[in-house]
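Recall the central idea of this unit: under ordinary conditions, the amino acid sequence of a chain determines the structure it adopts. In this exercise we apply that idea directly, starting from the sequence alone.
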Amino acid sequence: MLATGRRRVQNRARRALRMAAQSLRTSPSNRGAFFRRMRSTLGPAKATTATAHKLAKIIYHMLKEKAPYRARSAEDYRHKDPERQLRQ
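Accordingly, the structure predicted from this sequence is:
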């Protein structure tokens, strides 16, 4: 008898985005600074998901608008909100 249910597969895009997010842990980029900030407040699992979601939004924007990626440093990320340094 043939199976009637649908075959469950793993989402390859999800896996790739989560691997990319986890690799940002030691990155000096602004995405790495975002991951580290999220990790300190949310924990590692939710920080990985939040960073993967941010990466997915960046990729979607690049594909939809046909725009090139603009790399920013962690210094740009810190200077974006100088009050954050004072609040901590």
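Residues 12-82 form one domain.
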